[in-house]
Amino acid sequence: MIASQGVPRVGIVVIGRNEGERLARALRSVDPGTNTVVYVDSGSSDGSLMLAEQLGAQVASLDLSRPFSAGRARNLGFSVALQGGRELEFVQFIDGDCELDHRWIAEASAFLTAHPDVAVVCGRRRERFPDRSPYNKLCDMEWNTPVGEALASGGDFLVRTKAFQDVGGFADHMIAGEEPEMCARLRAAGWKIWRIDAEMTLHDANILRWTQWWRRCVRSGYAHAAIARLHGNGPDKLKKRETLSVIVWGGLLPAFILAASIFNPIFLGAFLLYPAQILRLTLKAPERDGALLFATSVVLGKFAEFVGVCKFAAARLAGRHDTLIEYK
């Protein structure tokens, strides 16, 4: 976008793979006619690159000789957006299955301009079809985070170009949790992360089967462990508590109960701790609508998240980098 009358220069980076019509909605929402828009593709086979070109975006393909990740794709898109000497004050990242609210860029840019100590600003991401499945509804509830200063953002956010460059962008090796990991480095460098009370994106999660939900939880557990290893001993002890909770509820406690029941079946009654925890979280929820569903997902999701923690630990011990954990 050409700067005039104090309007900041904004670049937009869209990433995706085989998103089809979702990608078309994403690119139409960012208006390639007035913004610098880059689409980074990660091995699509559905004609996404051609579609992006037709809709006016610059296109780039991720080198698939290395395991790809969302962080690598966003870093590449950021570099392409600044090619040719473009001077961009801010860059908006958006996933290819999302649609940007038409008011967002103006509101988010104004906030960053007015708050020079803030590096990243995000808003309300909503699920496009929350009633299509309980898993979609869970996504919408998960994204409804408090307004104000935050520890991290999700995959859609507006970032100050200088701040992004100062910390070296995303960690290429992170296959999950790359956003909170980068935000941790930004905060360590003195920047702030903020969520404002504004509509940002519509997201099409399209989680219709429990197996998809399970894989998404596995990815969450992997992300918890990866972030805790890097930043768990920092001032915020980032994801350390979450990782310990997953290990206890998803691994140690059920293992102990099963082992003890070998000697006395009465110990199987300890599994009642899980419905008791669901009830506790349901009653604790500030909003009752969907509270039972959310609490059930949190508790039962610990088992899948434990798989993710173990997957991360196994990769570390073997000295290898895992590939993406995808649920679509």
**Can you identify the CATH superfamily of the largest domain?**
Spore Coat Polysaccharide Biosynthesis Protein SpsA, Chain A
Overall pLDDT level: 92
Q: Treating each run of at least 4 consecutive H or I residues as one helix, how many helices?
A: 11
From the alpha-carbon coordinates, what is the Rg to the nearest angstrom? Answer: 21 Å
Named at the architecture level, the CATH assignment of the largest domain is: Alpha-Beta Complex
Structural class given helices, strands, pairing? alpha/beta
CATH topology of the largest domain: Spore Coat Polysaccharide Biosynthesis Protein SpsA, Chain A
Unreliable sequence segments: 1-5
Question: What's the SSE pattern?
Answer: EHEHEHEEHEHEEHHEHHHH
Task: Count every beta strand, where a strand is a DSSP E run of 2 or more residues.
Answer: 9
Tally the structural domains.
Answer: 2
Biggest sheet, open or closed, and with what strands and sense?
9 strands, mixed
What helical percentage do the residues reach? 40-55%
CATH class value of the largest domain: Alpha Beta
What's the end-to-end separation, in Å? 33 Å
- How much strand? 15-25%
**Could you say which overall geometry the principal axes of the C-alpha atoms support?**
globular
